[in-house]
Amino acid sequence: MKKIALILLFLILKAQVICAQSEDGGYAGVFLQIPILARPAGMGGAFLAIPNDASAQLYNPAGISTTLKKTFASSYRIMKLDRKLSFVTLAIPTKLQSAIAISWLYAGYGDVTARNSSGQDLGTTISSSEHDFGLTFAKQFTPFLNIGTKLNYYHKKISTLSASSVGINLGVLFTVDSMVAYRKMDNKPVTDINFGLTLNHLAAKYPWAAQTDQLSATQDDKFPFSVGLGASCRTIKRYLLLALDLEKNEKQSTFARFGGEYTLNKNFLLRTGLNRGVLTAGAGFRFVHTKTTLGVDCAWQADRADEGSDFVISMQFTF
Length: 319
Hints:
The chain has 319 residues and is mainly β.
């Protein structure tokens, strides 16, 4: 079994190098680039400058600083090839214009037949799971400056091998409207202008190790450090929300995400976007009852690399 685990580790690391050379994945934490909640997924994943939403902790942790009510949210992304991606979080506003949130993001795939280098069936199966347990804190230091941080505990298991890591995400959110006189922006054609800045995956890496009597192998899989810039605004009497993100990490080329959300009425919203050139779309429903609100959102992303289209379903409850 130890020999099988060692061979498996070599195959994993080799596959990651091949994928990395294509600049399209293969690095540690690549599952974090996939939008999981339906609202940002429908908007092409452009969410670095969107405030007051529990989804913000996955994009810009500073965005939860303006959370006014307790918020519970969960989501599931329906994916092909037996892959799974789900998320659950609880965000709570605290004193002095601040908020705290806990979250769990899970990614994995089902059982795959284990084979040796000659392709022979070893009679066992291999599965993979990856977790991101997060603790987020954000505070509004001035009416226009919000700063947040997210502490991540990552854990990944592939067959009998496992690795864990701690990483830090930092975020800043600037609300331009708060820098001008009160209500001065109300009649402008463009309002609610926000800018976001993020620094992600500080100190995060997976230390892999496997050993037999004859061989040993170790490898540190570093999470690529990334920088993100985002902007958002509202127009058409605040009915239309527009967002644009640019992101660059140390392993991939700069890529862009763009999205929009149109409010048809207080209870129904439509969304669309482009996630690195791939079309997305979605819708949201809001059911308001006195001091509580239940939101149900769905999103769709077109096929990107012959892996089929994805669907996302989310629920958000504020109380």
